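agent> fetching stored inputs for the protoporphyrin IX containing FE docking request
agent> found them:
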Amino acid sequence: MEATLTLYRTGYSGLQIGLHWLIVAMVAVQLLIGENMAEMIEAAEEGEVASPEDVLWGNVHLWLGIAILVIMLVRLFLRLAQGAPQHAGDASPLTKLAASALHGTLYVVLLAAPISGLVAYYGLADTGELHEASRPILIVLVLLHALAAIYNQFVRKDGTLSRMLRPQ
Ligand code: HEM
Ligand code: HEM
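agent> prediction call returned; pasting tokens
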């Protein structure tokens, strides 16, 4: 039954779509408030008192990051359990491979970012620099991913973006 579902799936489920856009919003906030977390940590290291603003947004960064980690694990589970649809339209095998590789890399980066953040925060290992690299990496990957989706939807007109908006 599972195999049949995976084979003939033509779109993403409502839950997969909801979690995709929830993560987009949460990641945008994380990129905006990462600086506050950095300031909060720096103040603690220098024995100074962090500003109330940095403490507030630093803590939001911590908890939102943990929520992203949990949701990404749920998404990974859903993808393995429900499967993902075939690529839309008649893209070449190379394009399909590039799209799948980009999706896979997004999963890896969004698991590595919160894990490296937690490890640095609790002083388990020096993963601070690796964690900071998540900002430029995410910006480049998400730009490529979003541009590809927009190009497929509006130039190739193959409905790629529609299927991340309407469950099937
Ligand atoms: C997907 C989730 C996350 C993203 C996208 C993210 C992103 C960022 C960004 C962009 C910065 C600013 C780096 C800079 O100043 O150049 C930052 C800093 C920081 N984040 Fe996160 N973060 C995430 C989750 C977490 C979590 C769960 C923690 C755990 C406490 C965390 C801990 C930190 C720490 C400690 C810093 C300061 C690093 C330093 O200055 O050495 N982050 N984060
Ligand atoms: C933090 C930002 C983003 C992340 C981490 C992300 C991640 C992903 C992942 C992992 C998939 C594969 C399907 C799945 O497993 O759920 C996917 C699919 C998709 N994403 Fe995103 N995405 C982001 C932002 C965006 C944006 C801004 C757009 C639109 C402009 C977009 C449009 C799409 C579309 C249309 C699909 C379906 C592609 C297909 O069916 O081949 N995503 N996204």
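agent> quick read of the result: The chain has one domain: 2-164.
agent> awaiting further instructions
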